[in-house]
Write a sequence for this structure.
């Protein structure tokens, strides 16, 4: 644990593999910038890996005032031991007050390892971060400018705000897609701080012989229109209506967790708290009840159309337009209308 440093920087762990930055740190840069401005401190990115020097300028363009860059061949492939040692060393030396990670497989592995080593708190899978003040209920001690770590809790039935006022750095993993990625500003200038990995004598537990990656079958985050189906679709065969409407609209196909669990659609298409968070121009929810876990992943869509037989379904609470009816009757009419309109 390091001492509370209220002048410490805001950090984003810049996850990179195969010479590429993932989208998540770039999404976090916009939120990090707003937090850093609120605290009147610099925003810094932590970039570790093998041959990552060329990625530092991209982080600066997305808002970093500093990039702590650690290059070492032992960091070419992610392994917890090496990365945790590097991040803990940087935290001990520079004493940031906030450290953010993407809630990716790597972030979910690295962040708790660092938190355990530094004896500080960690809030996982946050959907928002804010700066605010907190008063202890017993001692009435007031703490200014804490990181409010906001996330669904108790199965998504409540939204919890978690604070950490005495064990720093304040650390959180943030769900992919919940923060909008801003356009880069190539004219920005930032400081590149070259750091030493200090991994001499460290034996990594794994030897990487070969690495194979499989890209997702669908890029929901980039879609302007998404047609999603839920358990109410009824079967994998009925789910063909979802595919057909999406094809007419030039849309991507999404699904609720229930639809994925039932085998109606593959996991890559899952929208929601345990899937992908999306912000399309149009989101059509078919047979989706609208549990808070699903709404957390699509409520920021510009326009939402909901189709459900239950007029009291929670999805209607976030929908701009609602259709109470059987999707097996509604969707064929929509498909026909779209196709007729396309023909003029």
């Amino acid at each position: 644990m390091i001492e509370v440093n209220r002048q410490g920087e805001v950090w984003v762990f810049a996850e990179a593999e195969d010479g590429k930055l993932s989208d998540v740190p770039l999404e976090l840069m916009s939120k990090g910038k707003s937090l850093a401005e609120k605290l009147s401190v610099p925003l810094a990115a932590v970039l570790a890996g093998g041959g990552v020097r060329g990625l530092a300028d991209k982080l600066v363009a997305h808002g970093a005032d500093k990039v702590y860059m650690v290059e070492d061949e032992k960091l070419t492939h992610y392994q917890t031991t090496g990365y945790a040692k590097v991040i803990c060393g940087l935290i001990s030396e520079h004493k940031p007050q906030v450290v953010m990670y993407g809630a990716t497989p790597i972030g979910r592995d690295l962040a708790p390892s660092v938190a355990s080593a530094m004896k500080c708190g960690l809030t996982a899978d946050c959907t928002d971060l804010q700066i605010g003040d907190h008063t202890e209920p017993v001692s009435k001690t007031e703490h200014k400018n804490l990181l409010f770590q906001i996330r669904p809790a108790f199965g998504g039935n409540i939204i919890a705000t978690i604070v950490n006022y005495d064990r720093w750095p304040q650390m959180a993993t943030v769900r992919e897609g919940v923060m909008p990625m801003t356009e880069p500003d190539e004219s920005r200038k930032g400081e590149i701080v070259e750091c030493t990995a200090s991994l001499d004598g460290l034996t990594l537990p794994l030897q990487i012989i070969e690495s194979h990656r499989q890209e997702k079958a669908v890029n929901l985050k980039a879609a302007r229109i998404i047609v999603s189906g839920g358990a109410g679709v009824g079967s994998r065969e009925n789910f063909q209506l979802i595919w057909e409407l999406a094809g007419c609209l030039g849309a991507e196909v999404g699904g609720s967790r229930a639809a994925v669990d039932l085998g109606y659609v593959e996991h890559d298409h899952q929208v929601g708290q345990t899937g992908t968070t999306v912000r399309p121009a149009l989101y059509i929810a078919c047979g989706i009840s609208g549990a808070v876990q699903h709404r957390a992943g699509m409520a920021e869509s510009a326009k939402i159309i909901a189709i459900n037989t239950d007029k009291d379904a929670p999805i209607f609470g976030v929908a701009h337009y609602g259709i109470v009816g059987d999707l097996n009757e509604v969707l064929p009419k929509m498909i026909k209308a779209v196709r007729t309109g396309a023909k003029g």
Notes: DSSP finds eight helices and 17 strands in the chain. The helical segments are 23-39, 56-61, 80-94, 105-118, 240-249, 257-261, 292-295, 327-342. The chain has two domains: 10-195, 220-342. The CA atoms of residues 138 and 165 lie 14 Å apart.
